[in-house]
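One chain is below:
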Amino acid sequence: MEKPFVDPPEGPVPADLEIIDLVEGTGPEATPGMQVAVHYVGVAYSSGEEFDSSYDRGAPLTFPLGARRVIAGWDNGIVGMKVGGRRRLVIPPHLAYGDRGAGNAIKPGETLIFVCDLVGVK
């Protein structure tokens, strides 16, 4: 899949995790405990600016789903996706980096938007 364009946010910030399937996958389903490989683009809700992209690095992020190795919005938002699917996650601060933010890339209290492509499970 090609790197997605992330539409700028509109309207009020959602209070809870928002999951929108953009493309329905047809492969195996991601369930907690599986190793998943996800290509993604991350955008700050407040500015619409991209802060991270696995596409730019040329390799998906691989992690054990549900093992708390990633932000809670990912552990919750990737579950149920099927390989080949593309999903937009809008993740409020309490399921992301909260009031501490993340380095210079993500300010404290930021809501995050990710467009995620599930490229593999095992």
